[in-house]
Write a structure and sequence with these properties.
This protein is of the alpha/beta class. It has 17 helices and 24 strands. It has a seven-stranded antiparallel β-sheet with strand order 3-2-4-1-10-9-11, with helices on one face. A hairpin with a 5-residue loop joins strand 12 (about 205-210) and strand 13. Helix 6 (about 255-260) packs antiparallel against helix 13 (about 420-430). The longest helix has 20 residues, at about 390-410. The radius of gyration is 25 Å and the shape is globular. The termini are close together. The structure holds 6-O-phosphono-alpha-D-glucopyranose.
Amino acid sequence: MCGIVGYVGERNAAPILLDGLQKLEYRGYDSAGIAVAEGGKFTVVKRKGRVKGLSAARSLAGKTGVGHTRWATHGAPSERNAHPHLFGGICVVHNGIVENAAALKAVCEARGETFSSETDSEVIAHLVAAEQGDLLHAVRAAAEKLVGSYAIAVLSESAPDTIVCARKASPLVVGYGEDGLFVASDIPAIAAAGRRVYTLADGEFAVLKKGTAPAFYDASLRSVEKREIAYDAEEDIPEKRGFRHFMKKEIAEVPEAVARSIPDLSKGDFSELYEVLCQTEYLHIVACGTAYHSGLCMKHAVQKFARLPAEAFIASEYRYSDPIVPKNTLAVAVSQSGETADTLAAAALAKERGARVLAVTNVPYSSLERMSDFVLPTRAGREIAVAATKSFNAQLAALYALAGALAESRGKSAPPLAGIQPLVREAAAAGERVRSWMPYFVGAKSVFFLGRGADYVAACEGSLKLKEISYLPSEGYPAGELKHGTLALVDGRTPVVAVVTDPALADKTMNAVHEVYARGAAVFLITNVSACLSCAEITASVLLPKCEPAYSPMLSSLPLQLLAYYVAIARGNDPDKPRNLAKSVTVE
Ligand code: G6P
């Protein structure tokens, strides 16, 4: 969701802004723009499409500037709607949604002001320009009028060498080094050896002025002391390392991500969490997208091993469902980025209603981590491709371990996860067979993924992956439910992928295979039940190693991720940057 970068210092801003935007492009790539200030005047360059379209701006002169990469919310992706937005000597970049933009705009228009874009963001420039006093006070006065979420960086013609930033429910970090001051939506855009990095909390402001240390203020503009955060500047350099796409590289990293993300919950650091697990009577898992699917996988494991009532909720539904949060509920909020607006709001609501919150996130210092009572980190490493792959498997590693600890806290047990890494590796190698399935998928009308139990969740994740990057209509469906309506959609142009890894349910799922085959569908099997392979109705299959059925999405997800990847490429799509999507969804 929109990326922000800003710089003020002794160097030319444009190359810094463009390099930073490149690193933030996973947040949005509908359009991009930069503004640099030179002699009190702004030069603005904006382009529809990717950041590389701005390369001509690299030579712009000016040592203060802001940049933005956009994921459209209000107004189509276009040069006109791209940020920065200028009005009355004020220049603004914004991430978030101004929910009362229409009302605010009407007030500005009544004053005779005209707007140059259809965005909600432009109104911020108008509001700041209308204020008296210094830039910090003007930004604060404007921010007070905004309903919704924002991370903003503001320049003013009358305050050269200064950037004022503000944050509410959208992330923002500040960097400070010998070469100047930086602001960005995310650490990698400004990470560098020796540079100090600080996170802004909700309601805070920062003033970056050339030649001084960054100054931080709370909502009442009282000065705030901040501690720099520890981060690994080296780790944050995303490289493809010989792979054609980040997605393929990240799938290759799944086995390591899994091994690193299995926590040892018997360690001292987790003793307080373990006490809470012992008292836990209900589990509410809240998440979005792929993380929601890992939550569903956990629900299966918790019910099976701990016999504890567990429910996984789509965070955007949970937050408006007036949820009943019984005493001793543990809310598990799962989020790769730790910045997903709906997940943060769902976790906050659970907390407000008395639940303890455990964050399962891949990003240290993320908003989710900071608002939670406990943290179970996943250690997948940076994930660049928009479609989540290794972070899903890493989440499963952490969540299955948590399910095991919950079982143990009730005097039960779960099968150990320790030996799973080699099986994951085998699944990845076996999964490459899906490459030969392309003739059936590239021109398909739609694709169905079927399964039961944990296999049904894997089917849903396989379908989500395929939709995200191949743009083929697809559905993950419970194998037993097919005949209650969806079977009407199946014909010879509807390949069906069946996931069958639970021997107890294999015959049942194979019944659905017979039903779709009888309607002309080509059927593809992902299984570790070798008896299923003898079915003559199967067009092709991937044979996975055997494992505990509740853990099997950890393995079956690999051929499914690879299937989506190869179909996307065969259809000429960029799997790393699917149309209309963003990796970090920081708006509601
Ligand atoms: C976006 C991404 C998905 C991701 C979801 C949740 O929609 O495109 O890949 O699963 O957000 O993200 P989170 O960072 O909360 O796991």
